Fold this protein.
Amino acid sequence: QVQLVESGGGLVQPGGSLRLSCAASGSIGSYVMGWYRQAPGKERELVATITGVGSTYLGNSVKGRFTISRNNAENTVYLQMNSLKPEDTAVYYCNAFTVAGSRLASWGQGTQVTVSS
């Protein structure tokens, strides 16, 4: 089972930027990688996905502000977050999926992103 570790969160002012990283314990080249987030009192929601060949999906709430990318040689996925808003405050998680949609890893601890002045 692949293990994933998220990092890069922190406290940032509205309009600021952060870059999250998701490091995998093994090869992720053939997997769809996804970033999710969960705000207090809310369900976990999908933020972005990227396929093994680099096709991306971004949720409507982050489109135009966030970018997902991956480095298969380093088994790492990134989420570049620009123009952050208070409503982006959440714990951010990553995970890996087969093309059939099966989740490959347990949910980790995530990384906290807080957008506040």
